[in-house]
Every structure is written in C-alpha cells, then in structure tokens.
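Checked the freezer inventory, then went back to the computational side. Two predictions to log before the end of the day. The first one is the construct we discussed on Monday; recording sequence and tokens without edits.
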Amino acid sequence: MESDKLVIGITHGDINGIGYEVILKALNDPRVSEEFVPVIYGSSKVAGYYKKSLDFQSLNFNIINSAEQANTKRINLINCVSEEIKIEIGQSTAEAGRSSLESLERATEDLKKGVIHVLVTSPINKNNIQSDTFRFPGHTEYLENKFGEESSSLMMLISDCLRVAVATGHIPINQVSASITQDLIVKKLAILNDSLKKDFTIVRPRIAVLGLNPHAGDHGVIGHEEQDVIVPAMKKAEEQGIMCFGPYPADGFFGSDKYRKFDAVLAMYHDQGLIPFKSMAMDNGVNFTAGLPIIRTSPDHGTAYDIAGQHVASEASFLQALYLACDVYKNRKFYAEISANPLPITENRKDSRKNIIE
C-alpha cells in the first residue's frame, strides 16, 4: 500500500453487541473515510450478516490477508477468526470473547509493527474475554502491558466540552483510598499535562484535581486523604511546572460548571469522573488512552446487549473516536516538528497562574 493516508485499525469487539452496527453505520457514509484508510480486524461472515441486517447494499468490503494490502479507497477487512463462528445477538458467549481477543491481538501486532497508524477499539465484554493471555480489567491495562510500563497509561474521556482523566481506573471501590498515593497522583498529573500538550496542542494546560471524600474532606472533618496525600502531591506537580488547582468537591465542581474553566479534570476514581462525563456527553464521548507511544481511542459505551440487533444504536461516539484518532495523530506529528529544535530560554518566566483562575 503506497499512500500518505492515515491507516486506522478497527477491532470488531464483541460480535453479539452493537460493535458491528456502529462500525458499519459510521463507515457507510463514504465521506467519513476520505482522510483515512479503515482496516477492520474481524470476520467477513459476521460483517456480512450485520450488513445484510442493516440493509447497507452499497457498502462493500475489500477482504485482505494483511494491512499492507489495504486499498486506500475501500473498507478493508482482515479475517481474524474462524468462519464457523456463531452469532448470538445480545448474549455473552465464550466464543464471542475469544473472537474479540483474536481481533485485538492481531490489531495490536500490526500496530506494533507500524503497518497501521492508530487503533480504534469496539466494545468488549470484560468477562467473556478473560483467558490465559488476557487477564486485564479492560483495554487500557492490556495496552499498557503491551506498549508501556506499570502506571504509564491514563484513561481519559474526551468530548467537546470536557476532558476527564482518572487517577485509579478499573479497580474495586474498596481499594481506591489505599491506591491513591502522592507518587501516583504526581505521575498521573504529569501524563495528563504531557498529553494535553502533545495530543491536544494546549500550550499551558490548566488541570483541576478532585478530592476523594465528600466536600473534599472538609478540612479533615470527612477524611484526611486531601490534606495528607492530594495537596502535597499537587505541590510536587507544581514544582515540575504543572498548573493544577484544587482539590475540588466533585459535586459542586460539576454542578456549578466550574469544569469549563479548565483544560482537563483529574478524578480520583472511575465513577467519580465518568458519571458526570457520561451524563453530559454519552452520545459523543470518546475513551482515549493517554501516556503510551501508540494512539488508541474507543467509543465511551459498552456492548449494549439490551439494544443489540434492533438497529437503534447510535454511531456518534464511534465516529468521534475515529475523528479523535485522526486529530491526535496529526497533533503528535505537529508537536514533534515544532519541538525538534527549541529556542533556548534566556530568562525565567513568571508564573501567571494567579491571573488565570481566581
């Protein structure tokens, strides 16, 4: 394949959910793929079934054996799973779990080799995908294991109005407090700050930090994590040049629209950040894995077994995942170019943060 176009690898996820429906709905408009080459890692049998079900007669697949054979003007598909696979719409099956892992493994191999440029993952079932080779609570941890180091990744949820990252990801709620350490928060703030610069072209990111306890601990009345862990960690981050503010009580922070004053928010645990995010941006939100050398995005919804096969699933979030992958790829290239030969700093610059947010 000889082209300067961006090649996006797309995993098919759980075949019994809404993955194929949103993929095909997104790619059915030929204008969507004018700027990139889609390569679906999946099954021509399953894709054909959903194409027929959706009555997309004009949508055709270019069946290939490897991403290097991709046609730049077609929707390409690599068969990764057995053609004998059984579709059971709306059901969690071991077969669906195996096929979602086979798709993911083949795509990540190609991502590592550089034959695809970015990865967009369709929703998986975190239970049926578990196996001897997949013992992770989600995509983020799997990709961190493949491409990074421990705690080197950061789960971010992105929309037009809000960016939320989580200090602790897919862990039980009773483990959150013990998992939040000064080192963890400093590391996550550094990853977030770096991503905002490189992936979103924000020169001086402003990051809001949420407290762990109700009312952010209320000066120690409702918990000490803010005073003992979060505030000292923020001071260390500030010494590294990171502009972070808080810690803010989560309820009032989102309820008063204060989030609009910041470039991103660091929540302490999964639901603290994702509940307000999905309340505001469920249809257009994107899950983005920051901190890794590779680019991966995903729609911010799950397999949605309850509406699978009913033709009512919205492709909006999947479309945004495709668009964000393109944007981040371009932004990283731009950042690398402008950072290649930086001008020397001749004088110390005063921190103007106090003039930005009162």
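The second is the one RB wanted added to the comparison set:
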Amino acid sequence: MHATLPLLATTDFPPIARGKLDTLQVNLGYRCNQACFHCHVNASPDRTEMMARETVDAVLAVLRTRSIGTLDVTGGAPELHPDFRRLVRESRALDLRVIDRCNLTILNEPGFEDLASFLAAERVEIVASLPCYSKDNVDRQRGENVFESSILALRKLNALGYGDDDAGLVLNLVYNPQGPALPPAQHTLEAAYKRELAMHFGVVFNALYTLANMPINRFGSMLVSHGKFAAYMQLLRSAHNPANLDGVMCRSLVSVDWQGYLYDCDFNQMLGIPLLIAGRPRRHVSELARIALDGLPITVADHCYGCTAGQGSSCGGALG
C-alpha cells in the first residue's frame, strides 16, 4: 500500500474556517464484510479496529449536552459493532436525525436478518453505496455477487417503506466513478438510476449522491501504482470551483475515529490529519462538549480539491 499523504501535504488549497457544528460523524471501526476497490477507509473483514464501549458512551454524552442535529454513523460496516443498535436507539430518543452509512449486503449476513426492520422502526436514514445499476460494474468494484445481494437488500428496505416519499423512510444511494474521473452530473445520473432500478428490479429510492474518489488509501495507492496519481490530482485541481467552498462538509461536521479522536472530516481521519484546537492535536470526543469550534481554521491538504472539483462532492453528494 502506497502512502499518499506525502504527496498531498503541500497544497495551495484556499484557507477555510468552521461554521456552526451540526453533524457528528462517528466511525465505529474499520471491520467490514466487504473490501471494496474504492474504499478510502481500507475496510475489510480482516480489520480489527472497533470503538470501545466507553468511547460510545462519550459520544452519547456529547449528543446529550451539545446542540447537534445529526449523528452520521459510518465504518467499515458500522452495524457490525456490538453497540451500534444502542447508539442508534439512544440517539433517536434524543430526537436526532441518524444516518447509517450502509453497504447493503450487511442486511443479508447471518445474524443480521432483523437489521432492516430495526432501522425502519428507529426511522434511521440510510445512505447506501451502489456504484452502478449494472451487475458487472458493481461486482468489479465491490466483489463477486455484491450486486445481487445489494438488490436483495434494497427490496427488503422497499418492503418496509424505505424509498417511498409518503412513508418518510429515507433511502439514498451513493455513486463513485469506476476510475480516475469526475462523477457525471448528479441529477442526470439519478434519473438513470431510478429508471433502470425500477424497470429491471422494481427498486425505488429517494436520491442519488455522486461522490468523487479521494486520492487516499486503496484508490490513491492504485493511482500511484499505475502512474496516474499526478494526472488525477491535476484533474481535480483544474476543475476546482470556488463556489463549492461554502458547502463542504467540514464546515459543519466533526469526524470521530474509532478511538474517539477528532478530525475535520472523514478523509483527514484516514490520512491521520487531526483537528487542531489552539494548536493542539489529538483532541478527544470526551472534550467536545466544552470546546468552541466556530471560526476555527480547517486543516487542508491537496486531497481537498476532491470536494470542490466540478459539481463538488460531500457526504450529501454534489454541492452545485
């Protein structure tokens, strides 16, 4: 695995600062039932990093004491964590919006047969990766038979009311390009997804998020191995749109790693670039209830161009 941080650390990305904190994005661990080609977390079944129960408690303490509107739960496959359901239940009891970054296939794993029903009962918003509506493309990027399992999971969710605007159970899908290219226009691709999934599989969903691949971890290492890293970075930099700076996720989000340490975003977390407060790194989620973040500078590097290139790319899809 090629480390890409040395290639990204020197940057002329514009300085940006934090606004009001609205979202706590919590990575419960890097263990996953898949090992996707584009995964910026390097998640896999072999990873053992999982958040301690005490750290989950610290996350809940922050949610109880600080005015945060959204808990965004990610991994790995966050549902593999033994405290996933407790975290969801207690966060929903606080009337928080809870997002589960779900890989879909986890809903079909032994022991998780009731997971979809649990998510529906708690009215959890699902953001699910499905990098194409074609079996060959999905299986090439995510593994053999992943597409078939994903469609089965989507049908389970639809049967519970997910994807139905009237039911209020939100199901959004995520698209990543297959290689070193920018995503196509989100609204155009969403229309194609809705048409193809409904026509061939009877599947419905609410919205499609198009995300650019970040030049870090597995994808970044692949670029280095194939001699395409510099060209991809040039593509991102040349497509930089300053209008996207106002909407990047790091302005209103804090990312928490499996050990409880704080980062400006999930991508900085994967690169080991910590959130700095008064020049001090390695601040813990247990400190967050008493830390003022508004106006603090956000630590940037060259990968940040992935969020502002073209139509922009953030946890909620395109920015423009």
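For RB: The chain has one domain: 5-308. The two ends are 33 Å apart (CA to CA). Let me know if you want it refolded.
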